[in-house]
Amino acid sequence: MIIKQIYNNNVILSENEAGDEIILVGRGIAFGMTRGSKVVEGRIEKKFELQDDVGKKFKTFVQDVPYKTILVSEEIIDYIKTQSTKRINDSIYVTLTDHIANMIERIKMGIVFDPTLLLNVKSLYKEEYRLGLKVKELLRQKLKIDIDDGEASFIALHIINAELDSNMQQMYEITAVTEEILNLVREDFQIDTENGQCDRFITHCRFFAQRVVNNEYLSTQSGCNLSTYQTFEQTHPQETACIERIAQRIKDRYGYTVSIDEKLYIMIHLIRLTK
User: Which CATH number fits domain 53-164: 1.10.1790.10, 3.10.180.10, 1.25.40.850, 1.10.10.60?
Assistant: First the structure.
């Protein structure tokens, strides 16, 4: 392999056998080298083969991130990918590595973000929050710094972000919509947040909220679903009233018209949740 570009003493750009650009990381990997030099294989500690926009973004910021932080972040991301039950988008290599680098600087400067902004993460994204706590502990051990539990919520959001393949602004909006739906449900029903049915309902709400934020609609529009929903209107008036309030709130706040299909799916979850 030949060095195409030197970012710093520990990070270079090269190509693999297929001609795809790869980022190579290793202590002193570029020491005494110039562009066009042959890569010393023994100095390579990690290879990053990231494609498309993720690769471009990673190349842009990786030159300013300490090489140890890159290696620790990559190890953490590998752990997340093996522990998560969902597919993790490669965008996490950019977003979480950047977050970890900034977190280290914040802690050194004594700056702590207010975790109350993310209190709902723990209840809305239980799996990701538990994983965030484990990652926080791994980072504490590897970096030898004190890390507040509040960081677990930020880490969880990056994991969710990579699951949904959205950006952080969208993630905040999705979380806000999800919490708004749950608050409306709580006004009408007593729900047990530790119940498995509640977890499934929250998961559905998250993906519904993503469609609201992205102004996307379900592709299926069935007359049969209209008939089924009308039947539920007669048999479950309290659930219907709650769903119609949710639909109106979503329409008023986000300009999104909730379809019969969406209402029916929420209805099914509500019936299971409240029986």
Answer: 1.10.1790.10
pLDDT tens digits for range 173-216? 888 899 999 999 999 988 876 666 787 788 788 888 988 998 88
Q: Name the average pLDDT for the chain.
A: 85
State which fold the 1-49 domain adopts: Transcription Regulation, Sacy; Chain A (2.30.24)
Question: How would you write the chain as a 3-class SS string?
Answer: CECCEEEECCEEEEECCCCCEEEEECCCCCCCCCCCCECCHHHCCEEECCCHHHHHHHHHHHCCCCHHHHHHHHHHHHHHHHHCCCCCCCCHHHHHHHHHHHHHHHHHHCCCCCHHHHHHHHHHCHHHHHHHHHHHHHHHHHHCCCCCCCHHHHHHHHHHHHHHCCCHHHHHHHHHHHHHHHHHHHHHCCCCCCCHHHHHHHHHHHHHHHHHHHCCCCCCCCHHHHHHHHHHHHHCHHHHHHHHHHHHHHHHHHCCCCCHHHHHHHHHHHHHHHC
